[in-house]
Each structure stands twice: as structure tokens, then as C-alpha cells.
Amino acid sequence: MDRKWEILCMKKITSFCFFIMLFTFLQTPIVQAQNRIVNFVVAYKAVNFAGKNVQAIAVNNQIPAPTLHFKEGDHVVINVTNHLNVGTTIHWHGIIDPWQMDGVEGVSQHAIPPGKTFHYHFTLRQSGTYWYHSHAGFQEQQGLYGALIIDPKKPSVYKYNKDEVIVLSDWSNTNPNTIYANLKRSGDYYSPRFPLQPSLFKFIHDYKNASPVQRKLLINDYKMMQQMRMSIYDLSDVAYDAFLLNGKPNSHPWTAKVKTGDVVRLRFIDAGAGTNFNVKIPGFDMRVIQVEGNDVKPYDAKHFFITPGETLDVLIKIKKNNPAIIYAESADTVGAAFGALMTSPNQIINYKNIKPFPKPLPVTQEMMSNMMQGVNPESMSSMHSSHENHSSMNMSHDNQMKKTRNMKNSKSMNMSMPTEPTITGDHLEKMTSKIATIKTFGTKYQHLIAAVKTNNPNKPIAGVTRMELFGYMDRYIWMINGVPEYKAKPIILKPGERYRFIFTNPTMMHHPMHIHGHWFILRNGHGAYDPLLHTIDVPPGATVVADVDTDASGQWFFHCHLLYHMMAGMARVFQYQTLINIVDGTGKPVRVISKTPYHNRPIVRVDEDTPLIPALVHHPMGHPTRFYTSNHLDIGNDFWNNTQEITFKGMYGGDYNKLKLNTENAQIEKGKITDADIDIFYWRLISQFWAIEGGANYTYRPARKPYLQPGIGIIGLMPYFIDTEFRLYEYDGSVKFDPELSRDTQITNNFFIRTSIESILATKTISSAAIGSGLNEMQYTVRPFYRIRPGVNVYAQYQYTKDYGALRQYDQQQNESPNQNLYTLGVTLLF
């Protein structure tokens, strides 16, 4: 009897436990993996974001493209049909997928031809906030980008009841191919549109309103600018016409409905082609919970700084019946994007009352303060509280000034910055004790801590590659280790290893460096809790140490996520040795997919998901070199003396080698050509500021008869922005020397005064050529000019010319004065 009762009780207890477990199971949200099929149509779309009807690129007629919302474990198939008249691809930014699904033209696939469909397919073995965009040409700038959200298998530990994606982007009415061509004509082509410029008036204004310490800083900044020949406000390359929030311009801001008491998760994505944003929600504290798809130790922030390619998730609580205005200002202060969370449908939102961010300090101060952290990090520790104002992801204007002041007071600081790359070529080094002491400093990530373990910090380093981020800014050539992408060979990796990359940035701009198909383990001093990042913002003067575990296969793109920097050469291809072996017939494809002990870090080693294309393996190239053209035309007229002057310079070719056609100060007096010659030169770039040239010169006037002569020269920019050109010609045994120096002094944002001096000297008198031994001519010019728009200047010019020797005698024979005063009005065009 007792035994039966015991058995009966056990059955009831078992049934009760089963029902409790079933009830618990039903109450717990479980993410179920699914097969998901998405159809994309990429096509042109007419838009008007900035007062002009222009053509953009949309996915399913949407800009941004549709937000993809998946679950961890889902197998997705995304069918992309191309309705453009050029090829396209889509890259899944931050996603660990087979390399042939990565969507980079020239590296992982050929572009999808017009009218064709490509089937991207992969399984999602991670969670978080990501995004996708085209990796063909400039299509990302034209609108082909969208959010990609992956829910984790386990419910988030962060509690919220509203979830909104905030996609920030930039827009120009100018076609991006034209923008790029203009930047190749002159790196500061779009300068007339930037509010912040180092003019004399700005210096005087800032100096008058500065403290004695700040005045000393200002003088040092402007002195360094003159010596480095770089603007201290070189914050951006392109002044955009509009900034968008979820595809909405400020004329029709984006809004979403919330209620008082809501906790809202905002998933910020910087999908800009070239814009760093400062972001705030006035009146709200943001709690940062995730960075680039990975949960971090939460921290509060009043505002944050985000660069292209990055994502950042925050929580805010709606406590009052007031709108929450999201304000994202471009770091170059050109403009802002904004939107709002509304607590009632007809709520009045006064965007104009938002106080802009403080004007940024000169980049030289940011560079030097960042470098100072590397020189003496202990002295800066008080500036790095990760819970007071959270300087880990942003820095206040006051803190920046304090850091710069401390830096200036340090005698250990080397004030010089390189104007040429200090590293040439990519080299794999062994891990040494000296390299091991190099630490990350100068970044917004200094105190960023992962929420869970991300890596085994004791895994040995197979090799170290230094990556110096550099650029010939005026020539608009961007490079890694002194070499643009199209001149570099792939960096070879072996599977199952750990490689260390040490980034340094001696340029004046931020560079968000993005790696495809892998994670950077940012070495910021937290060991197993060092954060995982797919995009690392490397600020001016900063150093970043990051490890990469080679858990993949194939070949992957790595680049600066400023679109025009990437296109201009700041990129590389990482290539696995195993892929080379497969194509060469010495290895066989493998397919290894497994877990690691770390969240978001699967091993996906799939050598061949689709048939291999040997040409892509033998010659992977995201962006080959191009042929560029630049034409400078200067036309002036002296109405008082009926004299016209024309200068033309044409440059045609690649970055380093060009054909140069040049005629300078060709002159027509009262309908008669009195001065005209043309150089037909080969031009070769030898450094950031200097080029050599040589070829033939055809001289028409002044001479009794036209003649040809060989010529060579050197042309460049000396410190203090002194434009310099020295040319040598030889004719009939006489060597002619033609030096020219000029300088443009910036008075206001777009008003300049050019002063120049030019002379002609020769070693032998040649009467028929109107040249004589010794000094032949001196010319002095003063030219005030105004930039009315990019590529267009208007000017007034006074020019005094005095002839000597044989040239003076030639003037007298022609009944012309050896002294000439010209008062010219004219226009300069760059096209």
C-alpha cells in the first residue's frame, strides 16, 4: 500500500514538474531559426533631398533600403536583381559569412550585370545591429544602403519596449563620380563651402577672444599649419548639400510615436559616405549598450561621435510628455540631420532651438593631445574617467582644451609631424617585446569594455603589420604604408592564427578602418574583455593596436570607410594562403563551420561556396587606378591698355604620371600676340608636395621666329604655402632659367591675396630668341581673388614687368616699352 502511494505521489510530482516546465517554456520568448527569402530590386529613383531633382539609387524603391530584421540562426537568401545600367553588388557590413557572399566587386565577386540576379545566401551566426550597402563604384553615396538587425537567441538583458533604427547619411546633388573627379583636380576643391577655415580674420577673432594660454596655442597651431602645409580645419573633403536621418531631409524630418514611460532602444548607423557625426538628444541621457553589434559594459553619455561604418545602440527613457529630438551634426559644421520621437501626434517640435555643438578645435590640437597620451599616458589618466561625461566615446570641448594645455606644457613632446610616409610597403614583423609595449591611445574607445569575454588574450601572435594611414591630400591620393591599393599586393594570412595590426595616423583627418569578414579585437587594456569592432575610428595623431583571429578563408577587403578615401587608395586585400593553393591546384577546398567560446565569433571557413573565379584570386582589386583630367584656365583683361592675358594648364593621366600642357601668361596687346609659349611635359609625382617634369617647349613670342627647346623642371609647395616652380630650358647653347614663387594668403573664408615674383635668366645671348646673357625679366604680381564657388574664382590683378638686356633691346626694336603695368580683371576656372 505504501509502495503504491509512493508511486502515485511520484507520478503527480512528475506531472506537476512537467506542467511547470511547459508553462515556463511557453512564457520564455525563444528565437526560432528560419529560412528567410528576401527579394531586392536595385533601380534608379528620382529624389529631391536638397532643392533639386536628381537621380539616386534605391532598393525596392526605398532610401534607405528596407530594414532587414532577422534572428540569430536564420538562413537567409537575398535575391538581388539589378535594374541599373551598370553593375552592382551588396556588402553585408559586419556579417561573418562565406567570403564569396561578401559582395565586393573585384574581390569576392564580379559585379551583378544589368538585368541579372545574384543570390546571396548565408546563415546568421551572430546578433546585433549591422547594415548593408553597395560595394560597387559610388553607389553607396547614391542611396544604396540599409539597416540589418539580428535578434539574439537569448533575450537581451537590456529592457526596452520600443526599438527604432536611426540611419544617418549624407547627400550631394552632384554625381559622386564628378565629386571624385573634382577632388582629383584639387583636394580642397570644395573648400569654398566649408564654414571653418583658417583665415586671417578667424585667427584675429579667435586671438582677441582667447586667454593668454589659448593665444599661445593658436599661434602654435597656425605656425604648424604653415610648416606642414595642411589646413588646421581639414575635417572633411566634401561639403554635402544635405544630411539625412532615415532618408528624410530637414524639410520633412523623420518622426516616430512613443509614450511617456517608454524605454526606447535607438540603433544608430552612420551610413554616410564621408561624414562624421556628433549626436545628442537634448534633455536626455543616453545609455550606450552596444557598439558595432557587440554588447558593452553600459555607460551614460550626453553625446557621442560616430564615423562612417560604425553602429552604436543606446537606451533612453521618455519621462515627460515632450518630444525627444535626435540631433546629428556633421563634424565639419556644414549642417545637421534631425528627427524626433513624439509623444502625441500634433506635437510642436522646435528644431531651431537646438544649440549646435561647440566649434571644433584645430586638428593640430587634437593630433598633439592624442600623441601626448602615447608619450605620457599616466599624466592624462584624470582626463579618462569612463563614467564622467564618458570620454571613451566622446570628448568635451573643455576636456580637449585641458589635454592640449597639458600637452603643450610637456617637454617630452615631439612637435613635428611627418609630411611623407615613414613606412613604405606592407611588411610582416615578428612579435617582439618592443612591439608588445605599443598601446592603443588617443581613441574614443579607451575605456570601452565588452559585456562578455571576447577572446583569449594569451593566444600567441603569428605576425605584426604596421599600418600607417597617410595621404597626399592636395593630390587626393590616400594610402596605407605609403602605397595606394592599386600598387599593393594582397596581404597573405594563414588560417587559425592571430595577427596584430598597429595603426598610426599622422594625417589631419579621422580614418574609420573597416575589416570584412573578421573582427578586430581592440587592445585597449581589458584583456579577455577587449571589445570586438569591425570598424575602428583612428583619429589624427592616434595609435591603435588590434588583433585579428583568422577564423575565415578566401579573400577579404579592408579599407577606410570614407568612401572617397577608399576609392583613392586607402585599402588592401587580405588573402588566405589556402585559397591561393586551391587555385594553383596544390590544395583542396574545405568547409568548416563551428562555434567558438565567444559570442558573435563563429568560424566560417568556406573556401568554395560558388565556382571560384581564378582571375579574382590572381589579381584581386577593389579599385584600380583611373585616368584623370584637370584643366586650369585663367582669362584676364586690361581694359585700360587693351591687353588680354591667358594662362592654361592641362594635366592628363594617373596619380603619379601625367601629360602636362602649360602656357603661362600668354599676352595679346591691341590684337597682337606679344608673349606666347607652351610646355609639353611629362610630369612625375615624387612626393606629397613635389613633382619633376620634362619635355619640350614651343616659344612663339617674344622671338624673331618661333623655336623649340628642351626643358626640365621641378614644381611643388614649400613650407608656408609658397608655390614654387623652377624650369630650365636650353636653346642653341644658351641655358634659360625660369624661377617662380607665389603665395596665397587667406584673408576671409573665400577672399585671398596672391603675391608672386618671376624672373628669366640666361647664360648666353641669342638675338633671334630674344634672350640675352644674365637677367632678362622680372615680374611682380599682386592678385586679390574671391572664390565664388568650387572651381570658379574672380580676381583683380596688378602686374609690373621690367625687361632687361637683349629682351629690352627687342622691345625697343618693336617700339614697345620695356616696362609694363597691367591692371587686369579676370576669372579662373578649374574643370
Say how many strands there are: 45
* Distance, first to last CA: 104 Å
Helicity level: 10-25%
Q: Mean pLDDT, as a whole number?
A: 92
Task: Determine the structural class based on helices, strands and strand pairing.
Answer: mainly beta
Q: Beta-strand level of the residues, as a percent range?
A: 35-45%
Low-confidence segments, given as residue ranges, are 16-31, 377-415
* Widest sheet, order of strands: 34-35-36-37-38-39-40-41-42-43-44-45
Overall body shape? globular
Q: Number of helix segments? A: 11
Rg for CA atoms? 31 Å
Largest sheet: 12 strands, antiparallel, barrel
Topology of this protein?
Layout: H1 2-27, E1 35-47, E2 54-59, E3 65-71, E4 75-82, E5 91-93, E6 117-123, E7 128-133, E8 145-151, E9 162-171, H2 176-185, H3 200-208, H4 212-228, E10 242-245, E11 254-257, E12 263-270, E13 277-280, E14 286-291, E15 294-301, E16 303-306, E17 311-317, E18 324-330, E19 336-342, H5 363-375, H6 397-409, E20 428-429, H7 433-436, E21 463-472, E22 477-480, E23 491-493, E24 498-504, E25 511-515, E26 520-522, E27 532-533, E28 535-538, E29 543-549, E30 555-560, H8 563-567, E31 571-576, H9 577-584, E32 591-594, E33 603-606, H10 614-618, E34 628-638, E35 643-653, E36 657-669, E37 672-685, E38 690-701, E39 707-718, E40 722-731, E41 734-746, E42 751-762, E43 774-789, E44 792-803, H11 805-813, E45 819-830
Parallel strand pairs: 1-4, 3-8, 9-12, 11-19, 21-24, 23-31
Antiparallel strand pairs: 1-2, 4-6, 5-7, 7-8, 9-10, 12-17, 13-16, 13-18, 14-15, 14-17, 18-19, 20-21, 21-22, 24-29, 25-28, 25-30, 26-27, 26-29, 30-31, 32-33, 34-35, 34-45, 35-36, 36-37, 37-38, 38-39, 39-40, 40-41, 41-42, 42-43, 43-44, 44-45
Helix pairs in contact: 3-4, 5-6
